[in-house]
Amino acid sequence: MNELIDNPCQLEEIAAYLDGELNSHSLARFEQHVKHCSICAAELRAQRQLLCTLDVAFGGSGEFELPRDFARVVTASAENDLSMIRQRRERRRAFKLCVILGLISFGLLGAATRAIVFDPLRSLFRTARVLFDLLFQALSETVSAASVLIRMLAPTQPGLRLLLTLAFLVSLLALSLLIVKYRRAQIVE
Ligand SMILES: [Zn+2]
Fold this sequence. Notes:
Helix content: over 70%
Mean pLDDT: 76
Distance between the termini: 121 Å
Strand content: under 5%
Structural class: mainly alpha
Number of strands: 0
Order of helices and strands: HHHHHH
Number of domains: 3
Bound molecules: zinc ion
Radius of gyration: 54 Å
């Protein structure tokens, strides 16, 4: 018991002891104390156990021995995984390439379709509309002019009237054709 009176409990030294932070004098005194003090010995055991548990939990335990070919096995399996990943990645890359190529060809096809089908269609529609407008105008003018002419020519013989009307219609047709040609030349420009 004398030992314990000369060398009282210093619980804060337990952690320092476990961390190896005690100087030689403190270390000797602590070890001497623990031999006789059951409280400090129990505390030391508990803290040591806790440290052990933490060591195992964080994988730093020296008691756990790895298999001798552990590194080789790990390396081989990692290489295998890597090649699998590479294969998968290459497959995915190939698939992506296919999709991109498909999209590009689809886009090209779309552009080609537009250039080949829609643009001419549009210009065709535009031309048709202009032609239709012209034709309608020419027709209505022809009709009104013809009706005026027919009224004027009413008293003369039927054969001459018909001939005159025909000549008038032909000249009108020629005129409208000329107009159409002129307009078309304008559109093309
Ligand atoms: Zn003690």
